[in-house]
Amino acid sequence: MAKKKVQNKKAAKVQQEDRLSVLDHLDQHVLAKLKEKQQKLALEAKRQQELEEERKRQERKQREKNKSFAELLEESNLDWKKFK
To answer: Which distant-in-sequence residues (6+ apart) come within 8 Å of 67 by Cβ?
Structure first.
């Protein structure tokens, strides 16, 4: 039993050493293209996020601009009883 475990461990170790990763098989040119594409996608995602934030900011500003007098009065923290 002990011999089989030792042999299995050795076989597993040799198998791991023989196994090549995908990175080992890629050409440097292809790898550079993939990294460039990754950077472009990250920049695009950041740009989209900034556009979405700007759109939300504009919506809030427009909603604030279109509030009625009653809504503005409700949001006011002044105590109107003091001024009677």
So the answer is: 75
